[in-house]
Amino acid sequence: MRLRALVITLVIALGLAGCAGAAAPRRWHDGRLFLATGNTSGTFYQFGGGYADLVSKYLPGYEMRAEPSGASGDNVARLASADMELALCNGDTAADAAEGRGPYAGKQPIRALARLYRNTMNVVVRADAKIRTVADMRDKRVSTSTLNSGTDLLAGRMLEAAGLNADTDVQRLRMSLPDTVNGMRAGSVDALFFTGGLPTPGVTDLLESAPGKFALLPTGDLVAPLAVKYGSVYSSATISKDVYRTATDTETIVLPTLLLVPADMPDDLAYNLTKVLFDHQAELATVHPEGGNFDRATAPNTEPVVLHPGARRYYRGR
User: Fold this and answer.
1) Is 30-117+256-315 a CATH 3.40.109.30 domain?
2) pLDDT above 70: residue 267
3) DSSP calls for 156-178
């Protein structure tokens, strides 16, 4: 009897252990993840949508959805308030948030999973507005994108670097890219600023809709004064004439894109989200060309935003 009782006890114990081992682990936020992106005609939205699809497909127990937003500044605020679980963000806005400067009263509780592709500043002007430099925008109607977006921040800094007060020397319009494109076509907007990957869909549509009526404006000369005041987050680059089928290459300003998460995201989830990003990068590149323009060697370089411990473990191969 004792032997039989012992056997029964062991069977029950093993069965319970087996059930416990088979139980699904608790999913963070019930497995529903939301990624803050940007304007629907910008690169953040296209890139973010592609990444969200990959996470939903390859990370068991989780479903991600890309959400349109006011872009970088809005994304940081929504991440810090727990309205979003992930966010795409320009490097300058992320740096301000991490260090508690500019519009931020204190250091924001954000971490980074990766440094992604370079965000390129696209400045487009109406040919009949006679704007040859950013300084020529005085008294012009200028869209600096939506309020608190990464574009809005950098555009204001570029106008200042060109010797203009962004709020008094130009007619500053804070409009989404789709509304700005419509305004440019209608003649109610003279110039636009927009940061994005190349090509940015809204800019492509505008330039191709009326050849000769709009032009990309070179702005590479503003990198030096920006670097003096804000450091090395900004650098110069060339928009090849092949990108938007323009007559010449265009010198401009670039800055990194970061993939951000809240500081309290579980380490294992951060590890797996980073892993999906690189394991399936080839698929992401088919959604937008910028999906192929980052690599594992430079992705951990997110300073001054702290790299999430889960992401750090991934890059170290643990």
Assistant:
1) no
2) yes
3) HHHHHHTT--TTTTSEEE---HH
